């Protein structure tokens, strides 16, 4: 089973994305040392073990084979590598160019989770660049339900990002409930498997939702956690939002208006230091909305 022998990295990637520890995944299937060897590609699993591991992750052996074969496609691997570099550099033009190289035929051959990875990037263009919220909503909804099942007890990284996009488009009861479930799932994950990017995105989405709904107590909770998580994962670009929201919740609840004013001012200064004028102007507009004067 040559292809099985090379499946270790695939199994490891999916396990981590679904938030399973090695002990959780192999429980009642095989010894943890066996899984360690499988993931390091030093042991070829039997078909029975492979099928059991796949089933626990909500997949089939065929899904694992397709994902592993994908890693052997040099053209797609190059596209995906360049896409990840473009995302890391916030290079929208580069991302759009790489996506244009991906044909519909190649996209349809991708496993569902890999299609979702591409869909998340397409959503970034639809929502942030083209402001096409109708097309974005349709894509996010269809993409999410390629893998997500109602009542699921875990969320993949891709599902978390798709849910956050749905919340960004429409703050419906359904989307808020989904986002809260995904947030709690990520929040409870061990540091070794927790995805800081998904965590901060969901926190940002729930923070902004609480603000739009003027739910000041909930805003305080999410913004406080957000500031801690942004510090933990070095996500400085989110920091001004959480600082500002903590400040405005303090102010609106009249808990400590002076502290609230100080935090809002600190958030504005932070935005200027980061040279993020778009965020700066957005925060200024929030102060004007509530007739808050900052000295």
Automatic annotation (TrEMBL):
Stretches assigned to the HTH cro/C1-type domain: 11-64
Origin superkingdom: Bacteria
Pfam families registered for this protein in UniProt: HTH_3
One GO molecular-function entry: DNA binding
Gene3D superfamilies membership: Tetratricopeptide repeat domain
Regions annotated as coiled coil: none
InterPro entries per UniProt: Cro/C1-type_HTH, HTH-type_regulator_Rgg, Lambda_DNA-bd_dom_sf, TPR-like_helical_dom_sf
Designated name of the protein: Helix-turn-helix transcriptional regulator
